[in-house]
């Protein structure tokens, strides 16, 4: 089935969401561009790449979400695997707040707004993408299973954030550096007591992301409740 078979309100909602996310991403790009122009430094230009990586899982989930009806397993499984691989890149931008410090070339408040804007976009892209994927799981396996899926995805995402921020792995390393990546992951699973920071980041960030996601989902439904 194609997008033409989707209900008109669902198509309108999708377009409104993409317009809002597009406007918010444009603001981040403008803030970064003006920062470069103001300081003659490309200090925060790396955030453009991080935003691009955050868009990938949203693009994949949108592609699946715009397909009316049940997505066939032969499409869902490989696309879902790639989605899960890139999904941590979206909430990862929250940790770019680590780069915030007073610097010459731009006011401190400007840099704070710039990084917060990018972090917000990463978080919203993550939640929008996860909403799509959870809806697909709910159609196949039910409401309860969909929340198990969302919880596991956010915990795995938090583990991915740790791998990216502290061990400096990225999504491409599963192809370019799989042995080192696999060794570091297995080492932390087999020896959790020796890597308390790993599980501290995973559980704490996972709880934060899950509570935030549940709050956003609840807020989204408040206006739909009957009077």
UniProtKB/TrEMBL annotation:
Parts of the chain that traverse the membrane: 15-37, 43-68, 75-94, 106-129, 141-163, 196-216
Keyword annotations: Membrane, Transmembrane, Transmembrane helix
Signal peptide (from-to): none
InterPro entries listed in its UniProt record: DUF1361 (IPR009793)
Protein name per its UniProtKB record: DUF1361 domain-containing protein
The species this protein was found in: Hymenobacter taeanensis
